[in-house]
Amino acid sequence: MKKTPLGNLWRQVSDRPSRVVLFGYLSYVLLTWLLLCIPITWQADSVSPLDNLFIATSAISTTGLVTVNTPDAYNFLGQFIIACAFQVGGLGYMTLGSFVILARERDLSSKQLRVNETVFSLPDRFNVRTFIRHTIIFTALIEILGVIGLYVAFSLEDTPNSLWAAIFHSISAFCTAGFSIFPNSLVDFRGNFLVNTVVTALSLFGAIGFIVLSDFWISLTHKRQAITLTTKIILIATFSFISAGWVFLFFSDSSIAQLPLGERILAAGFQSMTAMTTVGFNTHPIGELAAAPVFLMVILMIIGASPSGTGGGLKTTSISAAFATVMASLRRQEYITFSGRQIPNSRVLSAFSALVFYLIMFLLGSIILLMVQSQAFEDVVFEVASALGTVGLSRGITGDLEPLGKIAIIVLMFIGRVGPLTVGLALFNKSRRVVKLAKEDVAI
What we know:
It contains 20 helices and two strands. By secondary structure, the chain is mostly helical. The chain is globular, with a radius of gyration of 22 Å.
């Protein structure tokens, strides 16, 4: 049978899980973009193709950066399409399709298993099939509970269209998407304890990831005696960084310090949480923050959420592995340990590769955006960290981006969702050849 160019391209893509993931997310972005370009999804004014592409990428990447105000630019149909997009983007490529296959009592093919393993990056003790089922079930249960909580909170505040607002923000929070149908995100609810609590809970569940949720469920059903090391690392890192950021923002920022004590506590905690989980909502204007709190939030956005979850960023496990490596070096250990357990060298290598790729993308993105934009340095760097980390927070420059600036942010959001390391593997990985090389020491 004669091979066609299209057939050769498909074979090259399908043979590598990283390329399947890359082109899978790309197809989602293009489909969402085409749907948003249909005029019946707009409000009165038209939305440009570039802005529609920006919103589509932001939704699929679960970022939340917007060049046009969502409630002003899109009607209910447009908002529904956006919500579906970040629901699919939050669950991850192949998850829904794999769940349908498993629900029909059919097994996944070897290629489907490899793609899912690339998407989720599971420890050895997890079964991919069980994990996919848990992912869908946990998502449905948590989002339904979130809808109930937010509907009560919004109804008490006499919010228009309380049910749709609750549905939209519950999905957005759990998928750490940061999209809002309110013009100023959640600033109007800064002092509302119920809204803050429900959104925080949804964001944390999404950010800590399905590994933790599945791990605890298996432990509670007595199928495993103890939680895995991965879960311990995720929980310790997530809550340690959020707590440190909470305290720092509470005491360091003058604009937050001017708030009443209750709002001050909620605002500081929420902004630390929203940066770390990469959910992207804000209850306090980010443009009012001082330089030191802004820099702290950049750090939290770079660290990001956890693997196999809905959040972005470098991931807590990669940072933890890097710290463990540093400590092992200082102690002159030949192996890396965490919580009394030895971490495989392959995982440490992956963590440092992800760290280097991520920092390269961050630096390149910052340089490019600084070249095409005239805004202040800290505002531009903050925007890059937010886009690459799929966070969605901004100091108010997103709507003023030049066309080249929008394209740069679109690329960064896409890379952030797929993963810099996965993008690198998809574009540059070649077939491995076993070659014996001579060893020689290098000064470090």
